[in-house]
Records
---
Amino acid sequence: MTIDATAARSASDLMRIDDELTDREREVRDTVRSFVDRRIRPHIADWFEAGVFPVELVPEMAELGLLGMHLHGHGCAGRSAVEYGLAMQELEAGDSGIRTFVSVQGSLAMSAIAKHGSEEQREAWLPRMAAGEVIGCFGLTEPTAGSDPSSMRTTARREGDEWVIDGAKRWIGLASIAHLAVIWAATEEGVRGFLVPTDTPGFTATPIGQKLSMRASIQCDIALEGVRVPLDAMLPGAKGLSGPFSCLNEARYGIAWGAVGAARDSFDAALAYAQERMQFGRPLAGYQLTQQKLVDWALEIQKAQLLALHLGRRKDAGTLEHHMISVAKLNNTRIAIDVARAARAVLGGNGITLEHSPMRHASNLESVRTYEGTDEVHTLILGERITGLPAFRG
């Protein structure tokens, strides 16, 4: 039996949430979905197995307006928050690593410049980054400072008409192929952000190998040894950790949507397989236990989709509160990894091969669930919101 891909995709939409989208939002979603079907799905198993990020996709993603697509001006597409979210959802239905590229480029590196840069910095970098001519990375996490960036050891000190940066960063997406790094460092006046061209002497990016997750993506260690940049390399609008946190919230927002895409794709793969796979004379999908699993997953995906859409509508209306992003990031990554793991089981032994997507999604989601705030971090953000009492330090 041949399974219609469109029908399989819509099977989890029990509440017809698709009807809540505008024509323009559907157009964005369908355009990105077509790109994923045409350029990512046929090759992602090979890229994942080889541990290769397909840099050849960058110009195509730029042509689609995906790079900094939610930013306005300076060559950016100026799309709505919901349109951006739908694009992230479709990209992650293809693979988390591909969505991560767009998130790092747009929600982290480009957002840092758009939010906190001078007009000269915006003009110098954003048009080229939107066009895919310049790739950026975002250097916040350190070997000893993941969930606690306030303990960062990277420093920037002023010497004459230059800043001198020393330190190390870890798990920095795209760093080895980036042309520009946004580096966060401690100064005498607090944490500040700096625009560092990656060909600056003393800057070294080394890809992290032997990964069991996000294999079609790039994460790196960065070493900063006496890196000298001019005074105007500092982002003037960011002082303190609120600067990088505002960018992290942009990335977390995209993750809340992207995780739904990974969950939905896992559901679709398991459903299609269960409808075709014959056991004891009937399709797996005809058994009560299988149908219970499919129903449970569909319910969770629907709730996550509604949560993401609500988040996007509030973001577009300017009424989004920061803790709401933690609700969606925590919930949606949690359900996505549960769906992906359970969907793999429906596929039986065949599910451990790259011919099918759920186990790849489950592997990737281990990273997605960890970066931009672990479950524990978002739980404590929400705990403080509920109780009024911060519990980050025991």
Note: Residues 242-387 form a domain with the Butyryl-CoA Dehydrogenase, subunit A; domain 3 fold (CATH 1.20.140.10).
---
Amino acid sequence: MSLQFYYFNLMPYAALDLEERKKYQTAWLNLPSRLYDREDGRALYARWIGDYIKADALGFDGVGVNEHHQTAYGMMPSPIVIASILARETKRAKICILGSAIPLRENPLTLAEEHAMIDTISGGRLITGFVRGIGAEYHVFGANPALSHERFHEAHDLIIKAWTSDEPFAWEGKHYEFQYVNLWPKPYQRPYPKIFIPSQGSKETIDWAAHPSRRYTYCQTFSPMVVVKKYLDMYKETAAAFGYECPPEQLAWSTMTYVAETDEQAVREVKPHFENFRNYFLKMPMPMLMPPGYSSVSSMMSIMKAKGNITGDMTAEQAVDLGFLIAGSPQTVRQRIEESQKLMGYGHFMTQIAFGTMPKELSDKNLTLFATEVMQPMQNQSRAAVAA
């Protein structure tokens, strides 16, 4: 089974003063921006963009960007800005937006135009990703989370119609109203770029993405391996109930990996940086993560039951045991990916190489070892199998 590899980066503020961070409940929304140093920020943007370009040169099938606001967790409030840079600076990798939070936009057509521009400039290398945005984003925008689903669906329908219509039209919806919709430019790909739907496991999202009229690629994010399997199986079962068999290219997994010379060295080197990521960058109170109305009660209970204490602390050793983090020698990491792919049947693997406070020398080593000792051998094996 062939596998597509993607390099993904949240672009964290890795220079965060952790002692200061510990004085606050979370790194989201209320962590004072006085802790942000402009020179550190400038250097980190240069570092992260350079890593994307290096990933392209190393043969990754795609590079992934996403959107978060007012947080040290990820300095990418506009994935459009980074994707625009990558449209010119990369040569072959797909540019995967994972994704743009469409229900938070007052004018989704602006996003439709921007994605069309990136697709055209890159020569058709864009993969579009749509998300609702996590709960914290609704606090940032002062938006009502109870309207999240219906705004998402209407914005999606408007964007798709704008991409595919060759004549001007008017749009009169519940949340958006435009007298003139007449997109210039159109996407380079016809009828429009492939669409990924990242999710934590909402049943409503799975039902919607798997519908025969969409068949969008479902990407499970930040979950223990048993949880990933549960939700990818749910997607496959939903597709079967709709009357079709879900192919591997409709399933994706995004997780963190760290490769070193030995298993012991990998866990030792990654431990402080994973734990800083999980326990100081990612962590947030439940009302911020899932504000009232953001998800149905049944979906929220299902996610909490599957993931356990999703807002609690986690050690690197626990994360490795759970499959939340894949860390080890090249042979171990390659074996874990091969085993998980056979078990779950996904066709896209999105690896987060640099996270938390990881310094440049370790993320450089991790990127190079993953690409040359894990990814490239698996790519070569897949090509040889196809040729045979």
Note: Residues 4-387 form a domain with the TIM Barrel fold (CATH 3.20.20.30).
---
Amino acid sequence: MKLLKKQYLLILISVVLIRGATAQPVVSNVKLSQRAGSRLVDITYDLLEDAAIITVGIETNGVALPEEEVTRLSGDISTLVQPGQGHRIVWDACTDLPDIRAGRARARVTAWFEHAPPLYMVVDLSAGYEADVNAVRYYTSEKALPHGGLTNVLYRTDRVVLRRVSAGTFAMGSVFNEPERDALNEKRHKVTLTTDFYLGVFEVTQKQWFAVTGNWPSYFMNTDWRDTRPVESVSYTMIRGAQAGSGWPTNNAVDSDSFMGMLRAKSGLSGFDLPTDAQWEYACRAGTQSSLNDGTDIANLEADPHLDLLGRYRCNGGKLWIGNAWVDPESTCSPLNGTALVGQYAPNAWGFYDMHGNVWEWCLDWYSDDLGCDAVVDPIGPAMSAGGTRVWRSAGWSRNAGDCRSAFRGTGVPALVNSSTGLRVALNLK
């Protein structure tokens, strides 16, 4: 059956795909219908027994459409849906596929358990800091992200995009012969993480911080560039709070007026936080054991050609060489110096950007200069640091190549603010 460009007919077939091995949640009664004189397609379904995150795939003539070609979806889709009848998804097929030719189409509706959600989560900050609610949506892959995917600047300004990291085991710390290694601080030991977690694909940007809190705290404040530069000059205290937020690891509470407090309240997700020290290194390494997360090792501790591809640091634009000394750039400088726009360097194998350099990233843990050699499960750091400092990771624009290694650990007091320290958002799954 020929499908015309302006108006078309489809033979519509309903298909249900239930996520997981048990009977909950249950999708049933899936129906598709094309609106008369329109290229809008309605997909209705019932959800029984339990709430679930709903996604959908479309097939035409027996062939699954690529996920990037089915993104104009609205209604009860890509979000947590409560049990009930008559849920509706609207697919704008005209915008997605203006020249489609097909005679048969069917939908595969998938229900994901809330504790086992799809690969990507996106928090919508577009309503601004005065909004009471930030919508949260889920997508099965990077290609399924609407509006052109990660190349669209909105994922570094008006949306926070996080990728799910599967539980697993890795070797934390550095090998004994790694250049610049701190034998105490980076002791090699086995770490097992038993719970999946989400982690921000990008460092939190200045525009995202503003969209949550309503302020612009950063040093690099050139208004032509600040939106997608990483937020810095933010302390652990500003991120989590000085009262309840100082309690980790006793509890995971945060102050309501902190960045995490506001993000939790507006998204309705109480798990938003910083990553732990171990979670950060696990995600940074993405299965590698080398000093850099692309599988290569640092060749030069000052200026390194491998690191030039992975992140901003002192020798590839972070600082200025004037005369015979490195000089910090002015606050109004372009991203050619100081911090780089997030996402400008190569990601690691799991799709995380800027995990070497750009800005230091706060982690939850109190700092310990000796992590020991024993195997550990779900480490949360010491009860308190002798120096009262928290862990930093990634190093930043002002550091040399050797400090940007995957195993390198820094430290700062919770109230410290400087132009080299920012954050990346995490969310634990139970």
Note: The CA atoms of residues 115 and 430 lie 6 Å apart.
